[in-house]
DNA sequence: CTAAAACTTGACATGGATGTGAGGTTCAAG
DNA sequence: CTTGAACCTCACATCCATGTCAAGTTTTAG
């Protein structure tokens, strides 16, 4: 598939797909004329990339952590640690987000009951 | 308390606190000489602001959504919707993050077992 | 009174992913 | 062959919370 198709299939802009490639996250084979071609599996790959980006991983981190693309498996224990760290970070992020959600829910509640939102708004540490 | 104290108490930089004020998120009373003073409750307030920022709300949104600071209660139904939207968004974000966490966990697992991470890496839609 | 620490405003810099536009090439279809 | 859509590369713009630096003022402690 060509870049436009992949963009349509993933929701990522063509610009972003080129960027992912530039960052070493996504491979493509070029047509004789120089245009990018992607295997069908690229759709999932892009989904993964976007998820990780949305989770706050930086493209450099993703490159380190994501298997292959370029030079397959430089499996250092350092890398394993890295992965673990990111996992921990994301889990913390989820916990924080949970608290934030509760705060928002509380706001919504107070909003409904009286119109004055007597915000208690406790328990948050960024 | 003065800005330095609040910064120390919250982990936010003085720069950020001034920015929050500039954006209408945080109030202060000025000393005769023009320096900012905060009530004790500001600590919690800043915590809340930071949580919401971390959750991806923009400072403009927070201003809209957070009770008072400036003109208390312009309680339009529009605002209630807004709040609800953000709540929904954050909940979606949590769900996505959950999936991402699982993916990361999978990576870590594969990493431990064999050294080759045969990434299946399914089920993600940004 | 004085020096140091803390604060003030203002402006410019940063990062990271993405948008955007120019100017040119390739591809698919008539 | 021709045309228009899709693509290419480069480069600069944007967003938004923060960092950072400069030059000046206020506060606090000695």
TrEMBL record, chains A, B:
Coiled coil: none annotated. InterPro entries: DNA-bd_dom_put_sf (IPR009061), MerR-type_HTH_dom (IPR000551), MerR_fam (IPR047057). Keywords: DNA-binding. GO terms for molecular function: DNA binding; DNA-binding transcription factor activity. PROSITE patterns: HTH_MERR_2. The keyword RNA-binding does not apply. Residues 1-68 form the HTH merR-type domain. PANTHER family: MERR FAMILY REGULATORY PROTEIN, REDOX-CYCLING DRUG-SENSING TRANSCRIPTIONAL ACTIVATOR SOXR. This is DNA-binding transcriptional MerR regulator. It comes from Actinoplanes lutulentus.
């Amino acid at each position: 598939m060509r870049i436009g198709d992949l963009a349509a299939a993933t929701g990522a802009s063509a610009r972003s797909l080129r960027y992912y490639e530039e960052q070493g996250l996504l491979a493509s084979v070029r047509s004789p004329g120089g245009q990018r071609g992607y295997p069908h599996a690229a759709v999932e790959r892009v989904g993964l990339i976007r998820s990780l980006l949305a989770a706050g991983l930086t493209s450099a981190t993703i490159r380190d952590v994501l298997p292959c693309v370029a030079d397959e498996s430089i499996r250092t224990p350092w890398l394993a640690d890295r992965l673990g760290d990111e996992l921990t970070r994301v889990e913390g992020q989820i916990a924080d987000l949970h608290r934030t959600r509760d705060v928002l829910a509380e706001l919504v509640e107070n909003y409904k009951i009286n119109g004055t939102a007597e915000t208690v708004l406790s328990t948050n540490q960024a």
